[in-house]
Amino acid sequence: MLEVTKNAAQMAIIQLGEAFKNFFAGRARYPRLRRKGVHDRFTLTNDQFALDGCRIRIPHLGWVRMREALRFSGKILSATISRVADRWFASISVDTQDLTHLPKAENQGAVGVDLGVSALATLSTGEVIAGPKAHAALLKRLRRLSRSLRACYEL
After folding, report:
1. Structural domain contains residue 106
2. In a domain? residue 81
3. Residue 106's Cα: distance from chain center in Å?
4. 34 and 70 co-located in one domain
5. Cβ of 51: how many Cβ atoms within 10 Å?
6. Is the pLDDT of residue 2 over 70?
7. Eight-class DSSP state of 37
8. Is residue 23 part of a domain?
């Protein structure tokens, strides 16, 4: 028990209570037991961790590098540390202000879309949107690899 922070066990019990509340309200299925080692994760409240630029301080681990700095400003609520394919990720919940300062998008009108084979989409305005040409790109790659293979056999 001394190896992990007390908050990890507390948040697990709180989340289990929320899961049962959602089950009895008819919003979710019956909560299932998690297996150890599969979808590992734990949650920390805002007083259990600290952020400093591109670093996060996790209890009993210390400072851990993050790929990018926090993008949003506001009150930090919690962080969920999860493991996916032996890589650890931190999901930080931030309470931001309402985004009322953004201008509203004006109505551009309606347009019909025809999905096709030769073109990805054709709009009713006559605009043609070309789709990805994976076949052409793969043919270029095949030519390049064939040339390198031919060079090996010419020796």
Report:
1. no
2. yes
3. 30
4. yes
5. 16
6. no
7. T
8. yes
